[in-house]
C-alpha cells in the first residue's frame, strides 16, 4: 500500500485523494488553515484518510501532490520531501498569483520553479490540465492500460524513474499517461494552450456539463499544437 500526501486539499487535491483511496491507498491531507478544518472531508473520505500539517503530510507521503495556488509554492516543505516523487498540479494565473516575471518572459515554467524550490525532490507535472470534475468522472481503473475506455493524462519531468512511478500510479487510478518530456516542456499544457483541458469536456463552453474520453493520441495531437507567446 502506498501513502499519498497532499499539500492542498481543495478541488483537485480532494479529487485525487478520492481516486487514490479507491485504488487502495492511504491519504494524508493538509491545507493552509490546519488539520481541524479538514474534519468534514476526512470523515467523508473514510478510514483511509487523515488530516495533518503540510510538514506531516509531506513526511508521510510516498508520493506527494502539491496542489495549491502557485503564489504559495515557496511554502511547500523542503526537507520532508527530499528524495521523494512530487506531483505538481499547479497552474499560473497572474490574476490570482500575481505577475511572475520568469514565467511572463518564458525563461522557465511553473513546475521548474517548484523543482528549484525542491532541489532534492523529483517533481513531475501532472493533473494540471484536467478540470477536477472530469478527473473524477473519467477514471477507469477496471480497464487495462491502452483500453479504448481510458483517458490519458499528460506528465512532464526530468527524472525518468520518477515519471515511471507516476505512470504506474496513474494507471492504478484509472488513467493512461502521455509523457511530454522534461519539465521544460510542461508549458504545452498550461492555461490558454489547446491541451488545457477542453479535450475532456463534453461541452467546451460549459465544463460542468460533463466529461468525454480523450486518449493519448488526442492529447498528444493537442500538445504539439501549443504555441508559446513570449
Ligand atoms: N480546479 C481545477 O479543476 C484544477 C485543475 C487542474 C489544476 N488546478 C491547479 O491546481 C492547484 C489547486 O487548484 P484547486 O482548484 O484544487 O484549488 P482550491 O480548491 O482553491 O484549493 C487550494 C488548496 O490549497 C490550500 N493551500 C493554499 N495555500 C496553501 C499553503 N500555503 N500551504 C498549504 N496549503 C495551501 C488551500 O487550503 P486553505 O483552503 O486552507 O487555504 C486548499 O486546500 C491550482 O494551482 C490550480 O490552478 C486546478
Q: How does this structure look, described?
A:
Residues 5-92 form the Pyrroline-5-carboxylate reductase catalytic N-terminal domain. It comes from Terrabacter tumescens. This is NADP oxidoreductase. Pfam families: F420_oxidored. Keywords: Oxidoreductase. This protein has one domain (3-224): Rossmann fold (3-Layer(aba) Sandwich). It has helices at residues 11-22, 39-45, 54-60, 94-97, 101-104, 110-117, 132-138, 160-173, 216-223, and strands at residues 3-7, 26-29, 49-51, 63-66, 85-88, 122-125, 152-157, 176-179. Strands 3-2-1-4-5-6-7-8 form an eight-stranded mixed sheet, with helices on both faces. The chain has nine helices and eight strands. The mean pLDDT is 97. The N and C termini lie far apart (44 Å). Helix content is 31%, strand content 15%. Helix 8 (160-173) links the parallel strand 7 and strand 8 (176-179). The chain is an alpha/beta fold and 230 residues long. The structure holds NADP nicotinamide-adenine-dinucleotide phosphate. NADP nicotinamide-adenine-dinucleotide phosphate (NAP) binds at residues 7-13, 30-33, 54, 67-70, 72, 75, 89-91, 127-128, 131-132.
Strand order of the largest sheet: 3-2-1-4-5-6-7-8
- Detail the poorly predicted runs: none
Overall geometry comes to globular
Which fold name corresponds to the CATH topology?
A: Rossmann fold
| CATH class label | Alpha Beta
The structure class reads: alpha/beta
What is the average of the pLDDT values?
97
Tell me about the largest β-sheet: 8 strands, mixed
Domain module tally: 1
Q: Report the span from N to C terminus.
A: 44 Å
CATH architecture: 3-Layer(aba) Sandwich
The number of distinct β-strands equals 8
Percentage of β-strand residues: 5-15%
What ligand species are in this complex?
NADP nicotinamide-adenine-dinucleotide phosphate
Determine Rg (CA atoms, Å): 16 Å
Instruction: Work out the helix count.
Output: 9
By CATH, the superfamily comes out as NAD(P)-binding Rossmann-like Domain
Q: Provide the helix percentage.
A: 25-40%
Amino acid at each position: 500500500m502506498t501513502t499519498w500526501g497532499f499539500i492542498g486539499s481543495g478541488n483537485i487535491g480532494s479529487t485525487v485523494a478520492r481516486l487514490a483511496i479507491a485504488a487502495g491507498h492511504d491519504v494524508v491531507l493538509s491545507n493552509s488553515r490546519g488539520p481541524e478544518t479538514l474534519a468534514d472531508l476526512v470523515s467523508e473520505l473514510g478510514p483511509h484518510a487523515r488530516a495533518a500539517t503540510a510538514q506531516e503530510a509531506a513526511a508521510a507521503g510516498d508520493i506527494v501532490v502539491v496542489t495549491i495556488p502557485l503564489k504559495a509554492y515557496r511554502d511547500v516543505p523542503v526537507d520532508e520531501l527530499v528524495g521523494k516523487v512530487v506531483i505538481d498540479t499547479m497552474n499560473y494565473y497572474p490574476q490570482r498569483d500575481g505577475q511572475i516575471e520568469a514565467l511572463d518572459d518564458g525563461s522557465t515554467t511553473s513546475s521548474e520553479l517548484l523543482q528549484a524550490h525542491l532541489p532534492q525532490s523529483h517533481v513531475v507535472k501532472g493533473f494540471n490540465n484536467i478540470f477536477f470534475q472530469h478527473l473524477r468522472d473519467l477514471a477507469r481503473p477496471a480497464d487495462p492500460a491502452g483500453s479504448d475506455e481510458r483517458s490519458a493524462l499528460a506528465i512532464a519531468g526530468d527524472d525518468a524513474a520518477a515519471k515511471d512511478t507516476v505512470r504506474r500510479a496513474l494507471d492504478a487510478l484509472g488513467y493512461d499517461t502521455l509523457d511530454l518530456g522534461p519539465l521544460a516542456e510542461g508549458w504545452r499544457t498550461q492555461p490558454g494552450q489547446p491541451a488545457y483541458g477542453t479535450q475532456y469536456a463534453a461541452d467546451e463552453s460549459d465544463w460542468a456539463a460533463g466529461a468525454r474520453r480523450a486518449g493519448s493520441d488526442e492529447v498528444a495531437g493537442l500538445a504539439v499544437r501549443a504555441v508559446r507567446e513570449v
